[in-house]
Design brief:
The chain is an all-beta fold. It is built from one helix and 29 strands. It folds into three domains: about 90 residues, Immunoglobulins (Immunoglobulin-like, Sandwich), CATH 2.60.40; about 90 residues, Immunoglobulin-like; about 100 residues, Sandwich (Immunoglobulin-like), CATH 2.60.40. Helix content is about 0%, strand content about 50%. It has a five-stranded mixed β-sheet, with no helix packed on it. A five-stranded mixed β-sheet has the order 22-29-28-24-26, with no helix packed on it. A hairpin with a 4-residue loop joins strand 6 and strand 7. About 30% of the residues are buried.
């Protein structure tokens, strides 16, 4: 019977255990599986280095915007766009780079976003970077006005936006509603509230006012916009009672107080109890009624007390008498001043 041939591996124990015999020397070689380490790809990032967030920019100014990236080679080009009405500013094909952005002369005051957009060479989603600038005049306006001279609300929840205009000594006028120098407040939040954007929301029947202030350093300018909402529950011919206050105006210094006489009068034989409240007081000021409630033909003493830190200003104060759904309101002016200044 012919002898069985052995394969090279069967007859070579050295091959089976991974040992190669070379001449007279023996070299043992251990074969390990190959390991491939992936080099992490840099994440595409865009940056706007100038201007910085919140930078003040004048209407009509030419603004230089600088754009860079720690991975510039990943972007074949990037586009820069400004929030309306600034619009498209241009394209940069090599980073870092810069573009000139023309701010419109008639732009309204407030914050505007500048956005740079680029699509990496990998074709993945676009990468964005934004910065917000603040468009403002550097000088103080000579006057201020609102497009609405008064607001009449019909029902609770109704909303009306305000538009504020600022006039300057060079004859120009700008929409200043969104200016960082503008603030809004309601003198009677039981009748209407107002948010930081100037949107007025009706709360309940009565009268009040919205105060708009433009503040730049020590310079202040303010206007008042009357607000009213008729009471649908009043009888024909008027409310069941009304409120009067005397005197109609007082001038005091910070840290002092002023007194007023508040009288409730019946209009149609009303005899219910009337709760009194005051709205639109200066910051940290206090109002106290004595007594806190009256009936028709009765009076109460209102004392308004201020602090030494109370800001100098003219404050419209609203006195409301509430009985059930009835809430007629009267107003008085409190002027806080010192040395003839306000």
């Amino acid at each position: 019977m012919p002898a069985k041939k052995q394969s090279h591996q069967e007859g070579c124990p050295a091959c089976q255990i991974g040992v190669w015999v070379i001449l007279a020397g023996i070299v043992q070689t251990t074969l390990l599986p190959a390991t491939i380490t992936a080099v992490p790809q840099a994440k595409p990032v865009l940056q706007i280095t100038e201007p910085s967030a919140g930078s003040i920019v004048n209407p009509g100014q030419t603004l230089t915007v600088k754009i860079t990236s720690p991975t510039p080679g990943l972007f074949p080009e990037v586009d820069l766009t400004g929030e309306n009405p600034i619009g498209f500013a241009g394209t940069i094909s090599l980073l870092p780079g810069e573009l000139s952005v023309q701010i419109p002369k008639d732009i309204g005051f407030g914050g505007y976003r500048l956005t740079v957009e680029g699509t990496p060479k990998s074709g993945k989603e676009s990468i964005f970077a934004t910065v917000e600038i603040d468009v403002e005049r550097l000088d103080f306006p000579v006057s201020m006005s609102a497009t609405l001279s008064g607001i009449e609300l019909d029902s609770p929840g109704e909303q009306i936006p305000l538009e504020v205009l600022a006039q300057y000594s060079d004859g120009t006028t700008y929409v200043a509603t969104s200016s960082s120098h503008i603030s809004f407040s309601s003198a009677n939040t039981e009748v209407a509230t107002v948010n930081a954007s100037g949107q007025v929301t009706a709360v309940a029947p009565g009268i009040g006012s919205i105060t708009v202030k433009y503040t730049m350093g020590d310079n202040k300018l303010s206007i008042g916009i009357p607000v009213q909402m008729p009471n649908p529950d009043r009888e024909s011919g008027g409310s069941n009672f009304f409120i009067s206050i005397a005197p109609g105006m007082q001038t005091i210094e910070p840290g002092s107080s002023a007194s007023f006489k508040v009288t409730a009068s019946s209009h149609t034989g009303f005899t219910g109890e009337i709760e009194l409240s005051a709205h639109g007081l200066p910051e940290e000021a206090a109002a106290r009624f004595s007594p806190a409630s009256v009936r028709a033909s009765e009076s109460a003493r209102l004392t308004m007390s201020t602090l030494r830190s109370t800001p100098l200003d003219t404050y419209p104060i609203f006195i409301t008498g509430r009985s059930g759904k009835l809430n007629p309101t009267a107003s008085v002016i409190l002027i806080v001043t010192t040395n003839g200044k306000r």
